[in-house]
Amino acid sequence: MPNEKILIVEDEPAIRELIRLTLQSAGYPAAYEAADGETGLQLARNHHPDLILLDLMLPGIDGLTVCRKLKADEETRNIPVIMLTAKSEESDVVLGLEMGAGDYVTKPFSRKILIARIRAQLRDFSEQENSSEIRRSGLVVNPDQHRVRLDDRELELTFSEFEILRLFVSHPGRVYTRSQIIARIKGVDYPVTERSIDVQIVNLRRKLGTWGVNIETIRGVGYRLKAGV
Ligand code: CA
User: Would the pTM of this model clear 0.85, i.e. be above it?
Assistant: First the structure.
């Protein structure tokens, strides 16, 4: 049974209830609930939940502002945030991810997807990024030696390709915007642009062969490694 406490910040009572029931069915204990951003911030500061589900369209202060305040406050900075968004809010999703939100789920969402994303975030948070080897479905990434093996075959990657792959395998299921990826590899090989990230991803997928399909393009947002790989 999981024992992580989750804070739901959502103004629609019906969606709040759906989330509450979903969490209960997955064994999570009773969550904290807020119907507006101000209350959400207070609950986050007072109770320090393990994860926050944050609607973007809220009365009063909107979800993006809540996210920015959470990430600016030392007390709440490290709490993973999953944004709850509408289809039309792609540009807000990019902003939120760049502010430090870990992921987003588009409404209407299935219970299964919501729980999978929550688990990925909680696991992400507890996992050590710099462990000596990261293994994902036949792929072995060794950050210390800067080596990648796929089914025991050594892959030749450029420094940037390696850093991008390392970012993805460290956080399966997590979406990265192009500028987040740029920040990670900046100034390594040559000046990096958003377009050049797309090129690097194409090359990386090609070198990874069939494994490359695990790197998903999220239209209008960025890239991620499939959850559960
Ligand atoms: Ca709303």
Answer: no
